[in-house]
Design goal:
By secondary structure, the protein is an alpha/beta fold. Among the domains are: about 90 residues, Gyrase A, domain 2, CATH 3.30.1360.70; about 140 residues, Isoleucyl-tRNA Synthetase, Domain 1 (Orthogonal Bundle). The protein contains 19 helices and 14 strands. The strands form 4 sheets. The protein has a 5-stranded parallel sheet, with helices on both faces. Strands 1-3-2 form a 3-stranded antiparallel sheet.
Length: about 575
């Protein structure tokens, strides 16, 4: 390990001093400071100061351009009627007086480059370690109550690869939303009502009686397994009349299949707060209440004996039938009532995560929100996930032995493990098709992203274990953040400082893949630091304040890696 520590050296003594605390300057504080400075500069212009979250603050690619840069003067110049460089110069004068800022320069047509003093930058390490599991969390979405509904599969078979993508991404979305301060509920809508349930029951009944499964029924080894398990538990079920048998097999198979889905999701670390039954929706009169709500808003009409919802008023391609002429509710009536019920349960934002074959649902669901009197751009969001396929050696593979011609969640976990599956499914935007290569995601090399990030965490854990074996209690030693002035230390501190903004952005955009890509960047920056900055004393070298400071930096890096992996539902191993 870096540092060349001899495990047989005597324990190193540490002298503790009163800790020196510098003023830490975070990206969020810079945005706030820039906003205050702009307010001063624009005081007589009549122009409103941008909100903090509208002010762009970035890490420059070259350290010569400072620690942070903002283009806010360029953005505002035309609106203010000022030369952007002059505006930037005034802003720079204001920012130069902020504690922790070493210098502010104006570059090019009006970029403002900000350089922090080493101590202010180094304090980020103390913040990350001190806040621990909470580092990266914010109050960005505080006060928002959000329902995230995902998977919502029929309880008629195993969860397949498409469900698996949402199991990983939906849970990760919920995690980053919670980290951003939102009150989040994960919800699974159980489609346990309708024709498909009868077909499921008939398929299992036929298998139990040694009869061919109906052509439009459910096929696969799992149907035979369900039938055998039900008969083993209740042999008398075969003596019941056909109609009674159908109901008995349907209900028993439903309970077993739902339990299997729940168990495999637990294995996958995807846990739901609410399992909401479509049957309950109807039994609780929620459908009637939903229809009443829509009538109150004036968007329900009757035509040809049926009851319709005028969704074309709000962007749908056609109006939708709620109640057929024979009095039977449509599936759309259930969808509508379900949305109204969510709002009645107090959710401000309702996020639907749907499969690739559900593009037609986007406008109709948005129209439902508008018909219910809500803001379709605020109260409802519909995300569509694209298809996933698995390859090995460039050839598409089918793993399932029980479910027919599909790949199940259980199959994937058995093949690659929970961590590799979750990380790989989450690190890509869901609106693009995804191909998983089994050989790549199970390879323990740096070209496998999940291994690369987890190895960085394990590597740092090893360094901190070595420090402990040498008798170094870095937490109690004096930490001087101003010593972290090496270029690689600065890069690492700057990357750590970005984590809260990355999480907030991932939450606001519903894009947890941003966290995964950030972690890969952090791992790279850490490895570069580790290669040139000795962390532990070598040979007879005495422990210095710089060693201690670098141990704090290592611990901060490890904490951020662990926090980010947890937001993806992936473990952070201490040994690999």
């Amino acid at each position: 390990m870096n540092g060349g520590a001899d495990r047989y050296l005597p324990a190193l003594s540490i002298t503790t001093h009163p800790r020196r605390y510098a003023h830490a300057v975070t990206i969020d504080e810079l945005r706030t400071a820039i906003g205050r400075s702009l307010a001063h500069v624009l005081a007589d212009s009549g122009i409103d100061t941008p909100a903090d979250d509208q002010i762009v603050v970035e890490r420059p690619k070259s350290r010569e351009h400072g620690d942070y840069a903002t283009n806010v003067a360029l953005v505002l110049a035309k609106k203010v009627g000022r030369n952007p460089r002059e505006l930037a110069t005034e802003l720079a004068k204001q920012l130069g007086s902020i504690a922790g800022v070493a210098s502010v320069d104006v570059a090019g047509p009006g970029f403002v480059n900000i350089t922090l003093d080493a101590a202010a930058q180094g304090e980020v390490a103390r913040i990350a370690v001190t806040e621990g599991e909470k580092y990266g969390h914010s109050t960005t979405l505080a006060g928002r109550t959000i329902n995230v509904e995902f998977i919502s599969a029929n309880p008629t078979g195993p969860l397949h690869l498409g469900h698996t993508r949402w199991a990983a991404v939906g849970d990760a979305i919920a995690r980053v939303l919670a980290a951003a301060g939102a009150d989040v509920a994960r919800e699974f809508y159980i489609n346990d009502r309708g024709v498909q349930m009868d077909k499921f029951g008939e398929s299992v009944r036929a298998a139990a009686n040694g009869q061919p499964v109906p052509e439009d029924g459910y096929h696969g080894g799992y149907i035979t397994d369900l039938a055998a398990a039900i008969v083993a538990e209740d042999p008398d079920i075969l003596d019941q009349p056909d109609d009674d048998q159908l109901v008995a097999f349907r209900e028993a198979a439903y309970a077993k299949q739902l339990r299997q889905q729940q168990q495999v999701l637990d294995l996958f670390r995807t846990h739901f707060d609410v399992w909401y039954s479509e049957r309950h929706l109807h039994a609780s009169n929620a459908v009637e209440r939903g229809l009443d709500r829509l009538r109150e808003q004036g968007h329900v009409f009757e035509l040809d004996g049926a009851i319709w919802l005028r969704t074309t008023d709000f962007g749908d391609d056609k109006d939708r039938v709620l109640v057929k002429a024979d009095g039977e509710y449509t599936y759309f009536a259930s969808d509508t009532a379900y949305y109204v019920d969510k709002r009645a349960r107090g959710f401000d934002v309702n996020i639907y995560l749907l499969g690739a074959d559900h593009h037609g649902y986007v406008n109709r669901l948005r129209a439902v929100a508008a018909c219910a009197g809500d803001d379709q751009d605020t109260n409802i969001e519909v995300l569509i996930g694209q298809l996933v396929k698995i390859t090995r050696g460039g050839e598409e593979v089918k793993l399932s032995k029980r479910a027919g011609n599909i790949v199940t969640l259980e199959d994937l976990v058995e093949e690659v493990g929970v961590d590799a599956a979750r990380y790989t499914l989450t690190r890509y935007p869901v609106d693009s098709p995804l191909t998983l290569d089994l050989e790549t995601i199970t390879r323990q090399t740096n070209d496998n992203p999940v291994f690369y990030v987890q190895y960085a965490h394990a590597r740092i854990s090893s360094v901190l274990r070595n420090a402990e074996e040498l008798g170094i209690d870095w937490r109690k030693a004096d930490f001087d953040p101003g010593l972290l002035s090496h270029e690689r230390e600065d890069d690492l501190l700057g990357t750590i400082a970005q984590f809260p903004s990355v999480v907030a952005s991932a939450a606001e955009l519903r894009e947890p893949h941003r966290v995964a890509r950030y972690l890969e960047e952090l791992a790279t920056v850490y490895h570069r630091f580790y290669d040139v900055c000795w962390v532990l004393p070598r040979g007879d070298e005495e422990l210095s304040d710089l060693h201690v400071a670098r141990l704090w930096l290592c611990a901060a890096s490890r904490q951020v890696l662990a926090n980010g992996l947890d937001m993806l539902g992936v473990s952070a191993p201490e040994r690999m």
